């Protein structure tokens, strides 16, 4: 709709946010973003009898903090992409 792949051009061409013009793409993008970030309901369910599970059990200290920081950066970056592509930029 913006006739460009540049984030700045896409944000500048939004008189009406694309979230209102193409809501199916907006909803699909949000769902796939949650799936990529492994948020509910896409996270792997654990049985009640399991004490630990997942790849994070192998890490402690600085490595675990770095993994959690990387996940937080993914969330912020995903939110920034949603704002640029569908909500008209900052």
Report a brief summary of the structure.
With 90 residues, the protein is an all-alpha fold.
Report on the structure:
By secondary structure, this protein is mainly α. The chain has one domain. The chain has helices at residues 7-12, 18-21, 23-36, 61-86. The longest helix has 26 residues, at 61-86. 2% of the residues are buried. The model has no long low-confidence stretch (mean pLDDT 85).
Alpha plus pi helix count? 4
State the helicity in percent bands: 55-70%
Number of domain modules: 1
**Overall pLDDT level:** 85
The 3D shape can be described as elongated
| Rg over CA atoms | 17 Å
The biggest beta sheet is recorded as: none
User: Which ranges are low-confidence, i.e. pLDDT below 50, for 5 or more consecutive residues?
Assistant: none
Q: Which range does the strand content fall in?
A: under 5%
Distance between the termini: 19 Å
Instruction: Compute the number of strand runs.
Output: 0
Give me the strand/helix succession. HHHH
Class from secondary-structure proportions: mainly alpha
What topology does this entry show?
Blueprint: H1 7-12, H2 18-21, H3 23-36, H4 61-86
List keywords for this structure.
90 residues; elongated; mainly alpha
């Amino acid at each position: 709709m913006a006739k460009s792949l540049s984030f700045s051009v896409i944000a500048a061409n939004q008189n009406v946010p694309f979230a209102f013009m193409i809501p199916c793409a907006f909803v699909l993008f949000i769902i796939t973003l949650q799936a990529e970030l492994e948020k509910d309901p896409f996270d792997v369910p654990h049985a009640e009898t399991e004490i630990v599970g997942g790849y994070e059990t192998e890490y402690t200290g600085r490595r675990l903090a770095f993994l959690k920081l990387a996940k937080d950066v993914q969330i912020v970056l995903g939110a920034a992409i949603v704002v640029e592509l569908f909500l008209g930029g900052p």
